[in-house]
Automatic annotation (TrEMBL):
Domain Inhibitor I9: 24-96
Organism annotation: Corchorus capsularis
Subcellular location: Secreted
One GO CC term, this protein: extracellular region
InterPro entries: Peptidase_S8/S53_dom, Peptidase_S8/S53_dom_sf, Peptidase_S8_Asp-AS, Peptidase_S8_His-AS, Peptidase_S8_Ser-AS, Peptidase_S8_subtilisin-rel, Peptidases_S8_3, S8pro/Inhibitor_I9
Major place of residence: secreted
Annotated protein name in UniProt: Peptidase S8/S53 domain-containing protein
């Protein structure tokens, strides 16, 4: 049903063309007619029937084909030509953005051989985003050695950017605007800011510094989060691929960036944007990411910011690592002092700009009530001038823009409620007006005070930054998109979570931290939130693993990150002066324990991932069998994999050798379900692992066979089976069961965790839609 709906949406996109539109043609390179000396000449002949048509991009790898502006008649005729595998309408995609390295255990002073390994500088992270601000100290190449020998890329010239802006940190930079210009050129939308790899938005600079920024002392954001800023892999190299502009990121440009990244020799691709929920053979982002995987490249993607709705996760393919967002143990506390001696606690990263003024006096408080994306306000000077304005946000709204409107109306400050969520997870935003963010429960107190007083007054102040054990962390962010995987329920998504709330990172000098035109502030760093920020944390961790294990492919790295992750959060009791990690990671939106639909395998632990003990390995043929299990035709298989394949033996999707198990309960009701997995020992010497099952009792009977795995040496592979049966007397109503299988090394340090999820797949997903 989901695939049928997706196909209908896909063809609706195609058939809404009133005039020429951009399309991406996928072709079989082996079917090039012999008269043509090159594929490019062949492609040109295909679109030559219209003088208004022109080729935008030619793709030679990982996909073969072209993008061009085509009329509806051309689309119909091209579809019938030999060699045409598929024709995709171009689409606009958007970025997933709304003290992390130390929180991950990657302190610069730690004498850990994995962190100090000089080979770390051999890893190359390709950042596909909005470009980079190359002069920023986070991209200094101090103490870095020669550029890795496997690098084949270049540094493109453009507006305010040339080859001298690259160094031994930023080893390459390219920009792709052909698709964007073709799409928006006719609409009058903003076209190009810097027609070069230079970043005028800030997002690309921010995520690049999170992944691989060099250490910068004395960093911070207007007095907040002051200290040492550095990326997860500070010695890794950065390759920049600018594809996102003022109005979005065109799929045709992203495909060209993937082609360049693969041919340039990157080891990691970091992509903080999302695909639509289309079958993989209709989704070019799924296709090009598969081709990157086939070339040995680890692809990290963001899960999206549509949480806490279930089945909202983006980027569902199993060959990418999909990353959700959690909090870190740093906070920016602030207090609202009401005139009735009641104090309200929230957080802020803007109060210190005018702290002396608003801390000293009580100002009138004016409420504008609730607002959402459709609300319209016309603030007169008398209404809000000289006042603290209280507003209650609903849903995904532009709080930064509201703050700008209040600033223009000369309000003193803004108190904004983020809705009924746990205050511990509220994001701090770089407003242009002094702003304090509070949760729904605190908002009710202020609302009650305003209604019961004719002249409500308040003053606000900041407590600055509290780091290290400021609160239990991580907590999965309310905005982080959730599973289950609506395309393939047998594949758990997201895969893991990483820091994505209130993250400090480098910033462009071309834009104020709020991203608003009237924001004239300039800061070398900015604090941002979103799964966009979580994704580069995993990209950096993957670079560390790749540097220490250069022969590991993308699925080994992914397995190591997932099986060593944690579902516990750290806490610190200031009164008892004790700390620990006994509590489960919680869900900000509910306060309950987070499930694998929220956090996947758990919160990543990069140091442990360097030495995982056992890994789940996957190759091209495994994915062919997986796609066969989705009933793909041989033509659809070729579209995804780029190779001619056939389905010799179909298998259930949950039989993919994935480091997580997700089973639909409907299948269990009809009899035992047997899931097979194979693990590889990556340590020297003989090793014995014993199985331990954790999870709630009753409902399902789960067994592991064998219960011991005995490895005689490194690289040996052993299989095991997980058998799932319903308990006697189990009724239909148990929709969800969450647990895990843990392989514990006898007499050793390794614990290899594999989450297990049992849920009523079709019934559950249909219930979410209705």
């Amino acid at each position: 049903m989901f695939h049928l709906l997706s196909v209908l949406i896909f063809f609706l996109l195609v058939n809404t063309c009133n005039s020429s539109n951009t399309f991406i043609a996928l072709l079989d390179p082996l079917l090039k007619p012999s008269p043509f000396l090159s594929h490019e000449l062949w492609y040109s002949s295909i679109v030559s029937s219209s003088s208004s048509s022109s080729i935008i991009h030619v793709y030679n790898a990982p996909i073969h084909g072209f993008s061009a502006t085509l009329t509806p008649d051309q689309v119909k005729s091209i579809r019938k030509l030999p060699g045409i595998l598929s024709l995709f309408p171009d689409r606009v995609l958007h970025l997933h953005t709304t003290r992390s390295p130390s929180f991950l255990g990657l302190e610069l002073e730690t004498p850990n051989p994995f962190i100090l390994n000089t080979s770390q500088s051999n890893s190359i992270i390709g950042v596909i985003d909005t470009g980079i601000w190359p002069e920023h100290p986070s991209f200094s190449d101090h103490n870095l050695g020669p550029i890795p020998a496997h690098w084949k890329g270049q540094c493109e010239n453009g507006f305010r950017f040339n080859h001298t802006n690259c160094n031994r940190k930023i080893i390459g930079a390219r920009f792709f605007s052909g698709g964007y210009e073709a799409w928006f050129g006719k609409s009058g939308a903003p076209i190009i800011e810097f027609r070069s790899p230079r970043d005028s938005d800030g997002h690309g600079t921010h995520v690049a510094s999170i992944a691989a920024g060099s250490p910068v002392t004395g960093s911070g954001f207007f007095g907040f989060a002051v200290g040492l800023a550095r990326g997860v892999a500070p010695r890794a190299r950065i390759a920049v691929y600018k594809v996102c502009w003022a109005s979005g990121c065109l799929l045709s440009d992203i495909c060209k960036a993937f082609e360049s990244a693969i041919s340039d020799g990157v080891d990691i691709i970091s992509l903080s944007l999302g695909s639509s929920r289309l079958p993989f053979y209709l989704d070019l982002l799924s296709i090009v990411s598969y081709r990157a995987f086939s070339h040995g490249i680890f692809v990290a993607v963001s899960a999206g910011n549509e949480g806490p709705e279930l089945a909202s996760v983006a980027n569902e393919p199993p060959w990418v690592t999909t990353v959700g967002a959690g909090t870190i143990d740093r906070d920016f506390p602030a207090t609202i002092h009401l005139k009735n001696n009641v104090s309200i606690h929230g957080k802020s990263i803007t109060l210190m700009q005018d702290d002396k003024l608003i801390r000293k006096y009580y100002y009138p408080v004016h409420s504008i009530g609730k607002f959402n994306s459709s609300s319209k306000f016309n603030f007169s000077g008398q209404l809000v001038e000289g006042k603290i304005v209280f507003c209650q946000a609903e849903g995904h709204v532009a709080r930064l823009s509201l703050g700008a409107m209040l600033k223009r109306a000369r309000a003193i400050a803004m108190i904004v409620s983020h809705g009924n969520v746990d205050p511990n997870g509220i994001v701090s935003e770089p407003h242009v007006i002094p702003t304090i963010s509070i949760g729904g429960l605190e908002a009710k107190k202020i609302e009650k005070y305003i209604l019961s007083n004719k002249n409500p007054r308040a003053k606000v102040c900041s407590q600055g930054t509290i780091s290290m054990h400021a609160k239990p962390a991580p907590i999965v962010a309310s905005f982080s998109s959730r599973g289950p995987n609506s395309l393939v329920p047998g594949i758990l998504k997201p895969d893991i979570i990483a820091p994505g709330v209130n993250i400090l990172g480098a910033w462009t000098d071309a834009m104020g931290p709020s991203g608003l035109a009237l924001d004239y502030r300039r800061s070398s760093f900015n604090i941002m939130s979103g799964t966009s920020m979580a994704c580069p944390h995993v990209s950096g961790a993957a670079a560390l693993i790749k540097s220490n294990h250069p022969d590991w492919g993308p699925n080994l790295i992914k397995s190591a990150l997932m099986t060593t992750s944690t579902n516990r959060k750290h806490y610190y009791d200031r009164h008892k002066q004790i700390s620990g990690s006994l509590m489960h990671i919680s869900d900000e939106s509910t306060g309950n324990a987070a499930t694998p639909f929220d956090i996947g395998a758990g919160h990543m632990l990069p140091i442990k991932a360097m030495d995982p003990g056992l890994i789940f390995d996957l190759g091209d043929q495994d994915y062919v069998s997986f796609l066969c299990g989705l009933n793909y035709t041989k033509e659809q298989l070729q579209i995804v994999t780029g190779k001619k394949s056939h389905c010799s033996n179909e298998q259930d999707t949950w039989q993919l050798n994935y480091p997580a198990i997700a089973v639909e309960a409907e299948r269990v009701r009809h009899g035992p379900v047997v899931i097979t997995r194979k693990v590889k020992n990556v340590n020297k010497g003989s090793r014995i692992y014993k199985a331990k099952l954790v999870g709630p009792k009753g409902y399902y009977k789960i067994d592991v066979k064998p219960k011991r795995l005995k490895f005689s040496g490194v690289s040996e592979r052993l299989s095991f089976r997980v058998v799932v049966e319903k308990e006697n007397g189990m009724q239909k109503g148990k929709n969800l069961w969450f647990g895990a299988l843990i392989w514990r090394e006898k007499g050793g340090k390794h614990n290899v965790k594999c989450p297990i999820v049992i849920f009523c797949g079709k019934e559950y997903l249909n219930g979410l839609k209705n």
